[in-house]
Amino acid sequence: MNIGKYKLIKALGRGGEGCVYLAEDSVLHRLVAMKRVWNGSREAEEKLKKEAEFLQRLQHPMLPVVYDLLWVEAWYLVMEYIEGISLHNYIKRSGMVSEKQAGKWAEQLLSILQYLHTRKPPVIYQDLKPDNIMVCPNGNLRMVDFGAAYYRNYSGSKERRDAFSVGYAAPEQMKREGYTAYADERSDIYAFGKIMYYILTGADPAYPPYTELPIASYASAVSGQMEKVLRKCMEEDPAKRYQVVEDIWRDLIGNDRGWWRRSTYRNQFIRKVEKQVFLTECTFR
């Protein structure tokens, strides 16, 4: 089936509002992802247009590039095709990853959150979860699905927001009697903590039977500092969480860009010294 110059190849995923297809651009000869909303859903159409606007304005290595937004009996958002597997399925298959790998991914997630939160006005992703994060063949992460993102106002008022995913949404995003649901930077930080917990333990907050035990109960080798930082990210009270991403970066990664990177540099240094010693010994034999 052809949609303009795009030839649909297969469905990549379906949801209540639409479907994402893998397609080929017959003119530029490249693979693309095409997100379609079901006909008649005005709300879904507006969300798709808003997502296109967000991605068109934002530029970051972890975000997909928008190529086109077109109407052919339905709205289609044409984006860069990101090859890989969802973080949810990756952890589901592997069980969990080492703290070293988790630390590298934490850097990448904090990098994109810092970028979004420092836009003017700030962008709140609002629905951060493993299903919206792709693990690429090179091991790096990419983010997809900006349908729930929004620009936070500067008035300080708490805007009502209904988009959330159970297990990863912060308490303030839930509808409760006497409270208005809202989301801000701290809501994304809460979700970051939950994602890192899932990565390190393999215990998915979105599915029962889930009990938030200490990370050390699942992985005893995880450092106390990592667990301390994530516990603060996942505080129920937004006022007790980290308020900005920069503070997480400071406590988790620091100026030396994390012990997982330092250990890599240390190993490289040791190998270099060993090589020099070996060559010196060969010279004087």
Would you mind describing this structure in some detail?
With 285 residues, the protein is of the alpha+beta class. Helix content is 38%, strand content 18%. It has helices spanning 42-57, 87-94, 99-117, 185-201, 215-218, 224-233, 245-253, 259-284, and strands at 2-3, 6-14, 18-25, 30-37, 66-71, 75-80, 85-86, 123-124, 133-135, 141-143, 150-151. The strands form 3 sheets. It has a 6-stranded antiparallel beta sheet with strand order 1-2-3-4-6-5, covered by helices on one side. The protein has a 3-stranded antiparallel beta sheet with strand order 7-9-10. A two-stranded antiparallel ribbon has the order 8-11. Strand 9 and strand 10 (141-143) form a beta hairpin. The longest helix is centred in the C-terminal third of the chain and has 26 residues, at 259-284. The radius of gyration is 22 Å and the shape is globular. Mean pLDDT is 85; it is low at 263-285.
